[in-house]
Amino acid sequence: MNLPFYIAKRYLFSKKSHNAINIISGISVCGVALATLALVCTLSVFNGFHDLIASFFTHFDPDLKIEATKGKTFIPDSAFIASVESVDGISVVSYTLEDQAMIQYKGNQMMVTLKGVDDNFQSLTDIEQILHGNPEFKLYDDVVDYGVMGQQLMMSLGCGIQPTDPLEIYVPKKGSRVNLSNPLANFNRQYLYSPGTIFYINDERYASSYILTSLDYARRLFGYEGAVSAVEISVSDNAHLSKVKRALQARIGDGFIVKDRYEQQDATFKIVEIEKFISYLFLCFILMVACFNIISSVSMLILDKQANANTLRSLGATDSFIARIFIYEGNLIAFVGAIFGLILGVVLCLLQQQFGIIGLGGEGQFVVDAYPVRVKLSDISLVFFSVLIVSAFSVWLPIRLLNRYFLKSL
Fold first, then answer.
1. Residues 223, 72: contact at Cβ < 8 Å?
2. Is 35:290 a contact under the CB 8 Å cutoff?
3. Which residue has the higher pLDDT, 8 or 193?
4. Which pLDDT score, from 0 to 100, does residue 98 have?
């Protein structure tokens, strides 16, 4: 039996000679519990926002995307194509090329991202679900090339779904000298016609600046013969995405990088993760402050139990034995507070998840009315062990110093 722990447990739940000690101990437990609850709720809210952002993945975001580690474009040779298509679990492979261009329509000019796609892109994305106007996804015919733009870009240009004039596309000529006397000579100029179709998507990046056209047209315009900027891949429903990703990366080598949907939106998700980590650090600091209340509680207990300490010393107990009793006492207070805080935090998060008790305010201004939450077992474990570690470091040294001081005076 661990006798110091047993005595500390009896001290925690037994009635003290001074009622103030019970009150201070209760306040210490409540302080740790509230800090623990705040940690659970905050981390769960960040998980909820992470899932909310993930729900905004669009038809433009493929399951996997292959890009070159160096340079904007690369030329997929037959060996590369064979390596990609030989991986089990891949259902659709589409080759794309995108770059910046300037677009002009009746005096209105804008910088856009022109994305050239091959014929497999339609199967990759099910883009028909987001088309408005002519339901046919058409990018070329025997006479002209077509461009399908987002709804916000259409409104910014003021061209409507079926423009009366073609769109003028300008891109700088590769490797040409600057002609100051005739600046237009520095640009390739080509035209795009509208098939009477736009795509409507709830993502401003695409809706306000993207135009879809054929891969051949993009190669001619940008001067990238046979090149692509990415290979976009759809994974079969019965395949495990992470396994397909690892197998694909092993096949194509270190010259390329395979990204899943989260990594394609790396900047956005990194911001969420950084904010979550910073919030965790701040709340751990608040938890440390809350743990200092335990020192007050144990200090009062040391004073209250001086007679017991004398009795234990007469029975042969050493100073370190007596000191361990009060260290255990402080850690038990933190443990009880952590358990209560975890239970309350999980219950509150589940109620919020089910009923949306706490709203975001500004009715109708946000995509959700209440704070999104998701409780993760890994976060619960992290919070629990963080409370134990922080409380141990916060309590150990001060209590040892107090014990030494008071034990000398016994």
1. no
2. yes
3. 193
4. 94
Distance, in Å, from the CA atom of 243 to the CA atom of 260, rounded to the nearest integer, reads 11
Return the pLDDT at 365.
63
What is the rounded average pLDDT for all residues in the chain? 86
Q: Report pLDDT for 410.
A: 42
Q: Look at the chain and count its residues.
A: 410
Q: 3-class secondary structure for 182-241?
A: CHHHHEEEEEEECCCEEECCCCHHHHCCEEEEEHHHHHHHHCCCCCECEEEEEECCCCCH
How many Cα atoms are found within 13 Å in the side-chain-facing hemisphere of 318?
Answer: 3
Sequence-distant (6+) residues with CB within 8 A of 143 are none
Residue 82 tokens read as: 């064979």
108-117 and 210-214: which strand pairing?
parallel
326, 332, 337, 343 alpha-carbon torsion, rounded to 10°: 180
Q: Which residues of 393-408 are buried (b: 16+ CB within 10 A; e: fewer)?
A: ebbeebbeebbeebbe
Nearest Cα to 124, choosing from 207, 212, 51?
212
Q: Which of 137, 139, 114, 140 is nearest to 126 (CA)?
A: 137
Dist CA 251 CA 82 (whole Å): 10
Cα 316 off chain centre by: 57
- The DSSP secondary-structure symbol of 175 reads T
Phi–psi pair at 100, nearest 5 degrees: -80, 145
Could you tell me where the DSSP H helices lie in 231-376? 241-252, 261-264, 266-304, 306-314, 319-355
